[in-house]
Amino acid sequence: MTDTEAGWVSLTTCLVVGVVTLAVLWLWRSCQVLMTFKRMGVPGPMPIPLFGNMLTMIRQPQEAFKFKPWSGNLLALRGDHWKHVRGILSPTFSSGKLKKMAPAIERVVLNLADNVTVKAKQGEMVELKEFCSSFAMDVFAGAAFGLQVDSVKNPKDPFIRHAHDLLFGRQWLIPILVTFPFLVPLFFRIGLTLSPKETTDFFYDVTESALKERLKEKEKFSDFLQLLVDAEKELEKQHEIDAEIDHRSQLHTSTQWTRKGLTRDEIHSNSLVFLFAGFDTVSTAMSYTLFCLAANPECLRKAQQEVDEKLGKKLADYTTANELVYLDMCLNEALRMFTPGFVVDRQCAEDTEVEGCKVPEGMLIFFPAHAIHNDPQIWPNPTKYDPERHTPEARATRHPCSFLPFGLGPRNCIGMRLAQLEIRMALAAILQRATPVLCEKSVYPPRSFEFGRITSRDGLWVKFQLRD
């Protein structure tokens, strides 16, 4: 062997040894991360190097988690920044503000009821998730931006098209980003996000245009953006009063989160999340409630009887919608069985220990809401649809954390009351006009699991029969 050949062999050997060494170090580091739960004393399945428990999550998609891509929204914020934004947004969902938004919801509900009548007269089979998604989209356009759209009659409306891209455009990215989270910064830099740039730009322009219109103060809107503008102005006035009363208030402005109002980026971001979170919750809860009622005629009869007694022929408004107790029980039971949000996540604020499990500060904890809602030790015979589980007497016997469709505690879903109001008003209007019944395409119970979200593999098919 010549000296040159020996040199090449030596170089190749060094490269191979180097690559193998780096691979071993990387694998060792990966295993250290994957064994975090074992070191904490948390029991669970053994992770696989590189993939962790991802393969199990793919085989059992009800354990998957949603990816939250927008950094300026309430779902992603932590600490003082979250407290600041939550403090401004919370008043926009008070009883008084919801009453102001109710007329915008009523207009969409009336259109929904008319569509139900048409479907019933034509004897059409209706896929409920698609049908209820149109309602949820129209409510969002009206309640958030003051726009009047009709997803059923005008499905090619730019607002509808871009909203669909925002919600479903790049769902294939979710398992990749969850499996390889270190790729998130790289994807962000090259512009590969869950939402196409054209779509986010569209909603930025829509929000900006709507904000400018509201800031002119020539017309008052009863929608989400108007309430944000009002909250910002009220907060600014209060800051001015506080400054005049006590100049020492300057001592308490040690962080930037004591500033007035929201930034434009925060308004844009939270407007998108208002759609992203509200749309799926409303459409899923509505469609599964109707489907479960169609499959359980006695529950349906009780719900319609209550609607008839409380409302007569009138549409539900803010006040009467909150009086539909049994209908709310039907909704809660559907939310238990088919929870839109699989998990509730919280971040540990300080080192703590829970029943022998050591949880370090900063660790993100996921509570499996769907698994809790279908645990036979908490909910006997969990596959049975039984609204009576949600009477005040039944609730009093269970732990508060046994029912988490909207989370729990200070960080529970801020739009919970608005979502419940929309759903009650819509369900009441449908049950006034028609009776949902199972049809030849119906598959009950539905097979309803997909990676990261609740969806029916076979569709939620029913027919509507007009009532006398």
UniProtKB/TrEMBL annotation:
Its cofactor is heme. The keyword Metal-binding applies. It comes from the Eukaryota. Keywords: Heme, Iron, Membrane, Metal-binding, Monooxygenase, Oxidoreductase, Transmembrane, Transmembrane helix. Gene3D superfamilies: Cytochrome P450. It holds the Pfam family p450. Coiled coil: none annotated. The chain crosses the membrane at residues 6-28, 169-188. PROSITE patterns: CYTOCHROME_P450. GO terms for molecular function: heme binding; iron ion binding; oxidoreductase activity, acting on paired donors, with incorporation or reduction of molecular oxygen; steroid hydroxylase activity. Heme binds at C413. Belongs to the cytochrome P450 family. Cytochromes P450 are a group of heme-thiolate monooxygenases. They oxidize a variety of structurally unrelated compounds, including steroids, fatty acids, and xenobiotics. This is Cytochrome P450. It comes from Pomacea canaliculata (Golden apple snail).
